[in-house]
Amino acid sequence: MADTQAEPRLLLPFLKPFYDHAVPLSWLVLRVGCGWVLLVHGWGKISRGPDAYVKAFVEQGFDPALPWIYAATFIEFFGAIAIILGLFTRFFAAALAVEMLIITGLYWPNGFSWLRRGYEFTLLWGFVATAIALRGGGPYSLDRKLGVEL
Predict the structure, then answer these.
(1) Confidence (pLDDT) at 125
(2) Coil, strand, or helix at residue 56?
(3) CA distance 96 to 98
(4) Does the pLDDT value for residue 31 go beyond 60?
(5) Domain coordinates of the chain in residue numbers?
(6) If you placed Cys at 103, which of 98, 119, 122, 146 could pair as Cys (CB 3.0 to 4.6 Å)?
């Protein structure tokens, strides 16, 4: 559904041409930022190998751990590449949002603060992923170039 309300009046109207050019880029910036952080995190799982995570996953209640580790690695590495490129954006962003929801639930007993291994950042990344899933790849995406998206 399209936004039916008019944009607010600009306090500095001379900035309108800049905003007209910059607003479509905002989703590209968000996708690349989210995807880059996720890609680096996923690469850590690939470079260390699944065995490095088995104990932690089992302790969190994911037994057998390997299917969960492979799913997380796939979302965090290959999903990140897809989000950066804007390819199957909604699917991978939704998968990431679900992963962050699960991790947020695991960290919930620790409280909000990330300094105490709380859910602060997993909640934030879950909201970011949800926004990307709802919006899609945006104007600068492979989804748009292909003319189809999930």
Answers:
(1) 96
(2) helix
(3) 5
(4) yes
(5) 22-145
(6) 122
Whether the predicted model's global pTM rises above the 0.70 cut: yes
Question: pLDDT band at 3, cuts 50/70/90?
Answer: low
Tokens 């690695």 correspond to what residue?
73
**What is the amino acid identity at position 130?**
T
Q: Please give the Cα distance from 78 to 84 (Å, whole number).
A: 10
Contact, 41 vs 99, CB < 8 A? no
Distance CA 86, CA 132 (A): 10
Q: Which of 64, 149, 148, 60 shows the shortest CA–CA distance to 99?
A: 60
Distances (CA, A) of 86 to 91, 137, 139: 10, 5, 9
Q: Which amino acid is at 43?
A: W
pLDDT of residue 148: 85
Q: What's the rounded Cα separation, in Å, for the pair 37 and 33?
A: 6
As a whole number of angstroms, the distance between CA 139 and CA 87 comes to: 12
Structure tokens at 45: 């799982």
Residues in Cβ contact with 43 at an 8 Å cutoff, skipping those fewer than 6 apart: 77
